[in-house]
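Shipment paperwork, digital attachment
Item: protein structure file
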Amino acid sequence: MGSHSAPPPSVISPFVAAPLSSQRASGALALLDSLCRHGVKHIFGYPGGAILPIYDELYRAEAAGLLQHILVRHEQGAAHAADGYARATGQVGVCFATSGPGATNLVTGIATAHMDSVPMVVITGQVARPAIGTDAFQETDIFGITLPIVKHSYVVRDPQDMARVIAEAFYIAATGRPGPVLVDIPKDVGQEVFDYVPVEPGSIKLPGYRPQRQGDRCEIHQAIHLIRQAHRPLLYVGGGAVTAGAHRQICELAERFQIPVTTTLMGKGAFDESHPLAVGMLGMHGTAYANFAVSECDLLIAVGARFDDRVTGKLDEFASRAQVIHIDIDPAEVGKNRTPQVPIVGDVRQVLETLLECLDPEDTALASEQTRPWRERIQSWRQTYPLVVPHYADALSPQEVIAELDRQAPQAYYTTDVGQHQMWAAQFLKTGPRRWISSAGLGTMGYGLPAALGAQIALPGETVVCVSGDASFQMNLQELATLAQYQIPVKTVIINNGWQGMVRQWQETFYGQRYSASDMVPGMPNFELLATAFGVKGMVLERPGDLADTVAVMLAHEGPVVLDVRVKRDENCYPMVAPGKSNSQMLGLPDHPLASA
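Attachment content:
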């Protein structure tokens, strides 16, 4: 097996520049070299005993200028930062943690990435091989703990496998339906010296893993037939469209057939929300006109969406009058919640490209007249039930704060935490491709700040804004120290209503106004002073008249900022589909024939 001692300096050779022939190296060197070969420039992590051999090699890699390690203040922050990095760029995010509590602190971040199909490679240290199974200090079975929330996982028991495992991990994480891959590395595997032969990216072949990229042409022609027949079609676009980079193809399909487009929370940015065919987000807090449209359409074209319960409401009444075309790269999602008339398994962009190639030139003129009454009907709903930005003389509304952000920073990358502020942000921010970064499937409070950190590291020239709530922000506020250390210029806007806002809204609406454990005012810190204590600029906004100027000052500041915005305490997020109701039954709307909540 070879020596377990750390390699002498003579076996340390330059990363990547080394020839592909065999050379003596440690398992840790093989790991770092493999990461560099896969284009990794940034790693988010926190060291500890079992992963120290890897961090020792990382020290040399950083000194050589090959990559940068970002020291977070909690491992959960590392996972969320890698997640935000991946969502903003489409590249695989990477995070490190040690064994035991370091690894278990990653679990929420891994689950968040898994639910939202985010490509990540998660590296954890583990106790030495002879100690595995003995309940050694800081030993946990992170492989077993994370099995339900990863796309795949490995324990590297032989350093000879390191290069292959890392190459496979990146390939699996990024292809098909993306997701997190865990690589657990025992301490002595990182230390052991062996004859290292690098494995180049793209050279891996996994016979049992063949994501289907091309859709079935017969099914594509069936889809075209249904689209040509439809008088009330609706494109229902999810996160898979963002992942596939299918923005142009969706726009072309929508324009060719004049099909209105609604997006999920994950699908925001896949279609220009200022486009005349855009009807905004659908679902529990979607626009009224999107929810009415999905209730009345005769054809629903689901593109990279999974019929999530927050989208569908009462499932058997979701698009109950419609035939369904479902396009998704994951065969497990097609037909899982709703049986489609036309199931198409394949890469969303490639399927749509093939579909567009098969269209006739006369389709455009025909569709424009055929769907005109439908588009006019949706427009009437839009005019009758618009999203409203309330203005109060003596208090700021959350909606007007977010609308002002959208006005002053329309091209920013936005991350959010979870709750009312997240839904208001989804309603009032009009974002572009990959510029909306939010925990949708798992709904993870504390996600926004570290995700913004990751996005900003990936895109240093861009404006990155985290929209948070006073409760969510306190979940991972320790990452202010990371912002301060690296002078990462993230702008954090706390929509501060002194509540766990969505919990309070549910308690008011469905639990007889019994506000159990949701009031956050007792014990709330002074966020301005807190930010200052971390070396971050802190600001407070209370008066409506100061909104525009304060946002402008925040955005103009060169470093990180925390802006505490004191908003109206009892503002609720509407529209709202109540549990067990159909999407057409929304709370917070005036009387309407379709809106009988």
